[in-house]
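Fold this sequence, please.
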Amino acid sequence: MKNTSPLKIFVILTLLIGLIEQGLMYFLSMEIVSLHPFFVGMLDSFLLILILFPFLYLFGYRPFAKNMGKLSRAKERAEEAHDRLLSVLDSIDAIIYVADMQTYELLFVNQYTRQIFGDITGKICWQTLQVGQPGPCPFCTNDRLVNAAGAPQMYRWEFQNTVNGRWYDIRDRAIRWIDGRLVRMEIAMDITSRKKSEEQIKQQNIFMHNVLESLPYPFYVVNTDTYEIELSNSIAQQLGISKGRKCYTATLDAKVPCHSEQHQCPLNLVKKLREPVIEEHVHKDEAGNDKYVEIHGYPIAAENGRISRMIEYQINITERKKNEEALRRISVTDEMTKLYNRRGFLMLAEKQIKIADRMPGELFVLYADCDKLKWINDTLGHKTGDQLIMETAEVLKNTFRQADIIGRLGGDEFVVVMVDESGKESVNTVKERLASAIVKRNELPDRTYVLSISYGIVCYDKNNPCSMEQLLSKADHIMYKVKKEQWSK
């Protein structure tokens, strides 16, 4: 029976019904049963209905009822899916709407859109979603949502809404509506906060650019791992110090980083010391002549604390070097110690104070003299006394930097001007360095006397400017106070 076609089953059932009905009618037409023809017809119809009912139920009503049930369940599932879709769309914090691409009628808007613009379903999009539009918006994307082949496609853009002034990241797509027509669905995410952040970053970049361009020095940022320049101002670029070049190639036309003792690499020093450094280098100018530059390097630490970048700028000190040379030629150095004498020291120190008023960091002045010089001269001879003075000068030169100004004012009196841009120096740290240097000197073998230096240190107060003579007077006063306390013990 499984392989029997529906047509054969229908033919067999028709023949079977016909035979049964004919048999009954034959029996009723016999003289044995005498009935009125009307009743015979009624009985014939009843028997026919009775015989056909099961077949009509099985092959007519039952399949029809089954199909109707399927249609009903499909409708319920479709309505549930529709409700779920609406629930999802209403839960999204974005403007979502569907508009007819020909009439611009709004066919659907989600809850988020209704909260902003009201219930605008059925209205014209360019009349409700924008303001001041006499017709369809000139920026409408309808013409971008269908490709040359006529297939729907998506278009993404950003726009500031004319109703509420907020920025949106918009995705427009052409889709088929339930009636088959092509409509535009738009999803617009509010990106106003992101736009404000981008504008702030843009303004900060402009500000930083203006700051860098206002500097009178070549300014650049170097990667401490690759030695590559990552940022430079226009003054640096004019000198060939540009992005992507190695710093030592751009500044010295060298193939390797600086490594001489006289001209150490500022980048390597910054990585090693993890603090600002100042180095003097000799570069070449456009004409090939020596150009003296003072290089200032400042470390930039990454989040993990590693020094990843270095800010560097150069100050052309060629004129200062020429002045220093001129000062030497007019005898501004002390013949015995080769330090600056009083005149040379005061000339340079006064200039350093003026620079200190404009630069970051601290300026210290140390005033010192040798202890027991008269006793050494009287007992060990003036030659040994001269040795004490030269040894004191040597200790001072070894203790302080080359950039510091060291001078001998006369006799056994010495003075030092120190500049600390890092802000890490203090009176105590300077004292500790000098005391340590004196101890090491006295530990040398075959000494005939003990080196002892009394000194006073003052820090220059930028808020209360004064002259170098006044600073020296303050430091001298502190030195004699210290010396008096030592001798009273």
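The chain has a mean pLDDT of 85. The first strand starts at residue 95 and ends at 100.
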